[in-house]
Amino acid sequence: MLKREFMLALVALSLAVPASAADLLATVKARGTLKVATEGTYPPFNYREKNGELAGYDVDVARLVASKLGLKVEFVTSEWASILAGLAAGKYDVIVAQVGINPKREQAFDFSAPYIYSMPQLIVRNNETAGYKSLADLKGKKLGVGQGSVYEQQAKAATGIEVRSYAAAPDTMADLAAGRIDAALNDSLMSAYLLKISKLPIKAGAQVGAVERMGIPFKKGNPEFKQALNKVLADAAADGSLKAISLKWFGVDVSKAP
Fold it and tell me: Coiled-coil region(s) at which residues (predicted)?
């Protein structure tokens, strides 16, 4: 996700793969399990239900991937600050936790094909007629953003927008519905979730930024595992499995590039 910071300096120490090391596919097949790291604190992507069970979009995707590989899934929860370092250290096989694919991270890890996409998106009231298509269209308007988020930075960098920062997204949505702000800006995935669970008179507005791709990272030097993982994701896209998980959590299909 855009808000996340990557701690390359912490993970670059243990990336070398011995030439004789077995491909990860052989390792997990022999073990019979796929060790998957996730945060467990980031709804609706990965979080714990009241009974303690992990749930969320990422959790369902991880279970699907493991099943299609013929493996049992073993979840390991980790704080985001150390989750990539844990992968580099071999504490688990993969991470399924909204890890954005970017050049810096690809220097450190291999990634699966993207399994989810997002981008900045506006939310507006149902009766809004202004038709905002970009941040420039919000000049002279009040825009609600998450406190400390990258969207707050983007909004403040735009000219002439009155930016109002909120600690919690539900408060932003409530102020939007009440007319105290003219629009809200959030990640399109979170926007879809908020709109799915909200009973307020609000709707999705324009997408106003670059597309972010999220994939499943694993240690470099495992071409057989990468091929198998990408085949699983391609098959899941073709048979509708990924779309079904997406509709379950977001109400829209976010497994395809917009």
Answer: none
Q: Which amino acid is at 254?
A: V
Helix (H, G, I), strand (E, B) or coil at 43: coil
> Amino acid letter at 189?
L
State whether residue 15 is helix, strand or coil: coil
Cα distance between residue 149 and residue 160, in whole Å? 19
The helix (run of H) or strand (run of E) holding residue 10 is helix 8-11
Q: Residue 56: phi, psi to the nearest 5?
A: 130, 170
Q: Is the pTM of this model over 0.85?
A: no
Helix (H, G, I), strand (E, B), or coil: what is residue 112? Answer: coil
Pairing verdict, β 33-38 and 72-77 = parallel
Tell me the pLDDT of the chain (258 aa) as tens digits.
544 544 444 444 444 445 457 999 999 999 999 999 999 988 899 999 999 999 999 999 999 999 999 999 999 999 888 999 999 999 999 999 988 898 989 999 999 999 999 889 999 999 999 999 999 999 999 999 988 777 888 899 999 999 999 887 888 999 999 999 999 998 888 888 888 888 899 999 998 988 889 999 999 999 999 999 999 999 999 999 999 999 999 888 989 887
The token pair that represents 60 in the structure block: 């369902």
Q: Dihedrals φ, ψ of 36, to 5°?
A: -115, 125
Four-point Cα dihedral 49, 53, 56, 59, nearest 10: 170
d(CA 95, CA 38): 6
At 224, give phi and psi (nearest 5°): -70, -40
Q: Residue 239 carries which side chain, given as an amino acid letter?
A: D
| Block residue for tokens 């629009």 | 183
Query: In the chain, what is the straight-line distance between the N-terminal and C-terminal CA atoms, in Å?
Result: 16
